[in-house]
Design goal:
The chain is α+β, with helices and mostly antiparallel strands and 234 residues long. Helix content is 21%, strand content 20%. It folds into two domains: 44 residues, Membrane-bound Lytic Murein Transglycosylase D, Chain A (Roll), CATH 3.10.350; 139 residues, endopeptidase domain like (from Nostoc punctiforme) (endopeptidase fold (from Nostoc punctiforme)). It is globular, with a radius of gyration of 17 Å.
């Protein structure tokens, strides 16, 4: 989960509020050099907190949004209105790349030595890898640079806002692979658009579907307020 630091916040106070420790907060936020000095307005990664979501209906296969893989959200069809295939970068489709890792635990994936796993930050707790995974898929597709990768939802959103190759679009105009940021309670979650099923949007990402609260790459349907949908235009 990500938290925007408010005036008067302290690391010790935030650690107590979120049931973690100052040392864990500093490890999850390596840019903080002094535990007694944090800045209002900056985004803080909170280790040990969950990205919430509503699981999709179990089903088989994926149609229209990409190729291959098994699904956790039934038959996902291409969006109505001629949205067409997913966006592609010089390295391919981030949606196809994400689908190739369906069913993998984020904790294991981030330790792989090649591909998406090599681009993921391995220090990120196993239950908050949503931005870490999406960033890595975008990197592998050649849509963002390593310097734009972030394990923070809000930082990734800001990086895409500043990138001239991305623009914000409405969900109805989304294509498979578009980056969707959502507001979940006092935190955020980020996934990629996958298509439509029974008139409802479907998303792929690193979601808290394991019994211990850790994340696995899966297809889901969610009903949380959407903060932004970023579409690659490069």
């Amino acid at each position: 989960m990500s938290y925007r630091i408010q005036s008067g916040d302290t690391l010790s106070g935030l650690a107590k509020r979120y049931g973690t420790s100052v040392d864990s907060l500093m490890k999850a936020n390596p840019d903080i050099q002094n535990k007694d000095l944090i800045y209002a307005g900056k985004t803080l990664n909170i280790p040990g907190s969950r990205d919430s979501f509503e699981p999709g209906t179990q089903g088989q296969g994926v149609r229209g949004g990409g190729s291959g893989g098994s699904s956790g959200a039934g038959n996902v069809t291409a969006p109505p209105g001629g949205a067409g295939p997913g966006t592609r970068g010089p390295g391919g489709s981030p949606f196809d790349i994400a689908m190739s890792h369906m069913g993998k635990n984020a904790g294991s994936l981030k330790l792989e030595q090649s591909g998406v796993g090599a681009d993921m930050e391995d220090w990120v707790p196993n239950n908050v890898n949503c931005a870490n995974f999406v960033s890595a898929c975008l990197e592998q597709a050649g849509q963002i640079k390593d310097s734009q990768h972030s394990a923070s939802v809000m930082t990734l959103q800001g990086n895409l806002d500043r990138d001239p190759n991305f623009k914000r679009v409405d969900l109805k105009d989304a294509k498979p692979g578009d980056v969707v940021s959502m507001k979940v309670g006092d935190g955020q979650h980020v996934v990629m658009f996958a298509g439509w099923k029974d008139g409802k949007p479907q998303f792929i990402g690193s979601n808290n579907v394991n019994s211990d609260g850790s994340q696995r790459i899966s297809l889901t349907s969610m009903n949380y307020p959407i903060m932004s949908v970023h579409q690659y235009q490069g």
